[in-house]
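In this supplementary section we document a worked example of the pipeline. Step one takes a protein sequence of length 484 as its only input; no multiple sequence alignment statistics are reported here. Step two produces a three-dimensional model, which step three serialises into structure tokens for compact storage. The input and output of this example are shown verbatim.
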Amino acid sequence: MVSRVIPVDPFDLIIFGGTGDLARRKILPALYRRFWAGQMPPEARIIGAARAAHDDAEYRAMIRAAIGEFVAPEKQEPATVDAFLERVRYLTLDARGDDGWDALCGMMRNGVVQAFYFSVGPGLFGDLAERLHRHGIADAESRIVVEKPFGHDLQSARALNATLAQHFDEHQIYRIDHYLGKETVQNLMAVRFGNMLFEPLWNARNVDHIQITVAETVGVGGRGDYYDRSGAMRDMVQNHMMQLLCLIAMEPPYAFESDAVRDEKLKVIRALDPVAPGDIVRGQYGGDSGGPGYLEDVENPDSLTESFIALKVHISNWRWKGTPFYLRTGKRMRARTSEIAIVFKDPPHSIFGVQERQKANVLVIRLQPNEGINLRVTIKEPGPGGMRLVEVPLDMSFKEALGPEAEDIPDAYERLIMDVIRGNQTLFMRGDEVEAAWAWTDPIIADWEERGDRPRLYEAGSSGPEDALMLMHKDGRRWREVKA
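The serialised model returned by step three reads:
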């Protein structure tokens, strides 16, 4: 198998917040890796913009250090790094003032793709959008990239969308969710819609339930102030996990095109039932020898914010009516893993007797670590002595199946930034999709805030609070083990 790298058109990418942590850890290393792979044309330029006073040489030195820290050593050829840095410029600019904007206007070129990455807090989105137009920098073909959070609730999401819509059309706005750039997430669509094997079974008649787990071993760390104002529901469920749910549950789009895919995702969100209080479990991790507990991390002993949440969700449409979706995410859990498990129903009748009851087939899509797809099937155990059934995996990890090429699979930011340059919005969220997700999420949050529920304490390094286990046990089901 030979991977193909298709160069993109010449572009100018302006990164507002170009000295920030996201730019240093993710955006700039991703751009370098695409340059190393030969996808960036020689005419491409990257312009970092921020309030800090730097010149080009100082900014390039910062990027060189970031490449050294966040790019694999075998991709750090000195000549390639130097060639990449030649395409980088820096501009001191005030997002809320007028300093630097005329200079940026003078740097822009005609005849190339213009993309503006808002790697800043949402409070600056409106200022940046307004000044891009006031100074004649952006035009009808320009593209802007905005990072989450896309609001804190429905009201703020609508206000944010309205602010951006004053200056940019929807087709110019790229709301980035890095989960949608993961290779396995996109393979989920390929597995569903590229194989007759699965799609006829992908419904409530054949699927018993679906589990989505995103577990992290780290705590909130230096994000304590932000995280305590958001929590797992806003930080993970409303966006990342909602997107995974949509890709699993949506109907086949008429084509793999941006609005066709996003139309079907929107239908899923609008078909979500309200969640009963008894179908939600919230938790906070406690402290141990490996680190402080949640309350210490956020420096708020009275915090009622959840670092863990598990919930049972139903979708009221013809395909999924009656099939529960169990979502679970948390900090300081036993292992770092993200997976989707489609658990099929038991055979209607076992011809092998009670002692050889068949186990359900399970299709597991692993997002991290060791991305791949696993299908557990029942076979006869080899050897004499009668019909003894065993469960075995049909396992495809990208690393094993693709060999060395798996190491060169672009990460999420690489893929998504190149999609911005191409003008492909398929893996980006639309404004009405974001608002629909908040419209479903807000009543859930409002209900527990009104009751003043305190999250359940769970042990760091565990699978979460005991109540989360009971959420499935009462339905006669079990969570899959959290393991790397």
